[in-house]
């Protein structure tokens, strides 16, 4: 297999420290939106929608996955080398997400009663991350795991997507524009999916959690990987884009926050995962995808900038390292925080719940990270 512009794979940048800090931002946003939900702060007013739109953290995680995981397929095209080792890729993903997740699932099933997703069948569904395929299968304490099930579906689909892009779209040659066009088609498929499921009677509500409804968020990250590789070759359009992002990182972030502010209006629908119409679902999807791109772009430029420095601070790096574990444990601990503070469901101070949740969740996440993830990394090496 040859390339129109051969470049050694090793010449591609492999580390992006600021993205670790961005994972911390994403996880804190998710904790914040769930603290708002449990204290009854979700609503159709502006503040209620703003609290609800902190679930944008999920879009950030999906875009980060698209950016980081698609890189080996881009590198294979740039270098004119063989396709990535799918077995190694799958093993990496299993070691990264499954062991810690299984521990939290077992704790949730032992510690909490649940009106949905209970029993042996519910346990099997959660351990296999299939709880979103059918209604009333998601157990209390791990309701956020719907996004992990969607992420797993992306993990499974990525090798097929990568093969199709390399072999069919690019015919074994490095064609960044072709890849970007194909990713645009994936986004269109995402919107067509919403337009379809909202008009199919009898379809389970959880169909709105399935991978086709979030392809655009993953595609944003995948597209940015293509841009970075093209800029590495000094292709003018890609270099210009990253130069602008490096020179104006604050403007990019303000524009991203502007997209989120627009999402906190009726244009993006109700404060719920289950939107009332295809139109509001698509609007929310587009605004979150746009915001994810605007926040990510300044962080992957070769030229250091203010946002890279802020997210590269030791505290942000440390929080980013334990962000997955924080994501896993925080719903269990939100419920504990409500009990500690003596609040009834949908009442109380969002600030107190947020602070108490973090005060307990961060040490728990760190412990899970040190006891499980660090040894697994050593084992993997």
Short description, anyone?
This protein is mostly helical and 381 residues long. It has helices at residues 17-38, 46-52, 56-69, 71-79, 86-111, 119-127, 145-169, 176-197, 215-232, 236-247, 249-263, 278-296, 306-311, 314-321, 323-341, 350-380. α1 (17-38) runs antiparallel to α3 (56-69) and α4 runs parallel beside α9 (215-232).
Sheet/helix structural class: mainly alpha
Mass-distribution shape:
globular
Low-confidence stretches: 1-10
| Total helical elements | 16
Gyration radius (Cα, Å) is 21 Å
Helix content: 55-70%
Mean pLDDT: 92
Instruction: Write the element-wise H/E pattern from the N-terminal end onward.
Output: HHHHHHHHHHHHHHHH
What percent strand?
A: under 5%
Task: Please give the number of β-strands.
Answer: 0
- Profile the largest sheet: none
Number of domain units: 1
- Report the span from N to C terminus: 30 Å
Q: What keywords describe this structure?
A:
single chain, globular, disordered N terminus, 69% helix, 16 helices, 381 residues, mainly alpha
Tell me the layout of helices and strands.
Layout (H helix, E strand, L loop, with lengths): L16 H22 L7 H7 L3 H14 L1 H9 L6 H26 L7 H9 L17 H25 L6 H22 L17 H18 L3 H12 L1 H15 L14 H19 L9 H6 L2 H8 L1 H19 L8 H31 L1
Helix pairs in contact: 1-3, 1-14, 1-15, 1-16, 3-7, 3-9, 3-12, 4-7, 4-9, 5-6, 5-15, 5-16, 8-9, 8-12, 9-10, 9-12, 11-12, 15-16
Structure, described:
The structure is a single chain. This protein has 381 residues and is an all-alpha fold. It has one domain. It contains 16 helices and no strands. It is globular and about 60 Å long. Residues 1-10 have low confidence and may be disordered.
């Amino acid at each position: 297999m040859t390339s129109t512009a051969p470049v050694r794979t090793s010449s591609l940048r492999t580390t992006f420290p600021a993205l670790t800090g961005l994972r911390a931002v994403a996880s804190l946003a998710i904790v914040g939106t769930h603290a708002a939900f449990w204290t009854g702060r979700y609503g159709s007013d502006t503040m209620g929608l703003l609290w609800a739109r902190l679930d944008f953290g999920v879009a950030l995680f999906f875009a980060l996955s698209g950016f980081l995981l698609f890189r080996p397929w881009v590198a294979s095209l740039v270098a004119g080398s063989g396709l990535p080792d799918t077995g190694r890729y799958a093993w990496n993903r299993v070691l990264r997400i499954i062991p810690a997740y299984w521990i939290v699932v077992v704790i949730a099933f032992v510690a909490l009663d649940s009106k949905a997703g209970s029993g042996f069948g519910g346990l099997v569904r959660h351990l296999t991350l299939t709880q979103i395929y059918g209604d009333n299968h998601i157990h209390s304490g791990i309701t956020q795991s719907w996004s992990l099930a969607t992420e797993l579906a992306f993990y499974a689909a990525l090798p097929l997507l990568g093969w199709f892009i390399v072999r069919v779209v690019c015919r074994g040659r490095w064609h960044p524009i072709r890849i970007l066009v194909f990713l645009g088609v994936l986004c269109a498929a995402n919107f067509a999916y919403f337009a379809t499921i909202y008009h199919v009677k009898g379809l389970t509500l959880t169909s709105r959690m399935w991978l086709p409804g979030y392809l655009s968020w993953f595609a944003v990250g995948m597209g940015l990987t293509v841009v970075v590789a093209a800029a590495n070759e000094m292709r003018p359009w890609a270099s210009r884009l990253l130069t602008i992002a490096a020179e104006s990182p604050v403007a990019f972030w303000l524009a991203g926050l502007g997209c989120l502010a627009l999402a906190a209006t009726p244009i993006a629908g109700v404060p719920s995962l289950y939107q009332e119409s295809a139109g509001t679902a698509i609007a929310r999807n587009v605004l979150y995808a746009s915001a994810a791109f605007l926040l990510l772009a300044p962080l992957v430029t070769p030229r250091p900038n203010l946002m890279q420095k802020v997210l590269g601070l030791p505290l942000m790096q440390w929080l980013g390292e334990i962000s997955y574990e924080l994501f896993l444990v925080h719903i269990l601990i939100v419920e504990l925080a409500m009990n500690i503070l003596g609040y009834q469901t949908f009442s109380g101070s969002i600030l107190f719940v947020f602070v108490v949740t973090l005060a307990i969740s961060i040490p728990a996440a760190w412990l899970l990270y040190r006891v499980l993830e660090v040894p697994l990394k050593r084992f993997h090496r």
